[in-house]
Design goal:
By secondary structure, this protein is of the alpha/beta class. It has a single domain (13-202, 231-257), classed as Rossmann fold (3-Layer(aba) Sandwich). It has helices at 22-33, 46-58, 73-87, 110-138, 167-187, 214-221, 232-242; strands spanning 13-16, 37-42, 63-67, 92-95, 149-154, 192-199, 254-257. A 7-stranded parallel sheet has the order 3-2-1-4-5-6-7, sandwiched between helices. Helix 3 packs parallel to helix 4 (110-138) and helix 4 packs parallel to helix 5 (167-187). The longest helix has 29 residues, at 110-138. The structure holds beta-D-glucopyranose. Beta-D-glucopyranose binds at residues 100, 156-158, 200-201, 206-207, 210.
Length: 271
Amino acid sequence: MPQNPHPRLAGQFALVTGASSGIGAAVAVALAAYGAGVVVNYGHDLDGANATAKVITDAGGTALVIKADVSQEDQVQAMFKQAIEKFGTLHIVVSNAGIQVDSPFLDMTLAQWQKVIDVNLTGQFLCVREAAREFVRRGPQPEVSKALGKIICMSSVHEVIPWAGHVNYASSKGGIMQLMKSTAQELAPRKIRVNSIAPGAIATPINLSARDTPEEEKALLELIPYNRVGDPADIGELAAWLASDEADYITGQTIFMDGGMTLYPGFADGG
Ligand code: BGC
């Protein structure tokens, strides 16, 4: 983990769901690099969570691994309770855990639909609500953070780009957009900032199948004007900045970090 000379999150505590791999792991490591103590949540992959925590602690940071299935209210509440018992409070919650269960629409089962909505959307509802409750309970700490608390929802370019074969996933991300905006509107008077990060194609396990062969990678790059697949660390840096006082006047926004995927490159020489 890079040592950061500018600990803009010093004295703060963060919780990152789905931090056992991919974007969540990179976000947890980045928040720690900027000085936050971090809860590394995982659903199934204890080894992955421990690996994330080791990167943090090896660099002198603070990490606490907690298991919870974000789609289960009792588990989310138990996780927040444990985190608050250990750290005293939380200042930053990154609601990141997400899954894809892909299927052609005509064959999509209710179970496939429900599973993705439960984890990606209901899971974010539960974590955003518990985060906001904790920020309100704790009250202001202006010496640590201008805002009462910062919530970052991990969305996707698919909150706006329709995605055939992934209707459950795209629907969950569209839902996250309104979850984020509506909670941002409701919580802004309390000085809680709620924003989303919408990554494009980032090199993580979730999209391995789209990058498996050189042909697949080439097809993927055709959707990315900037001509590279994103690095999880790109998202980590953005999350650390968005959670900091430097971004104190940003709320209710989705920040797309996608190498231009949402520029609809198919129209560059068509339409
Ligand atoms: C999906 C990835 C996909 C990317 C761009 C993400 O939200 O999880 O599988 O590569 O969007 O389509």
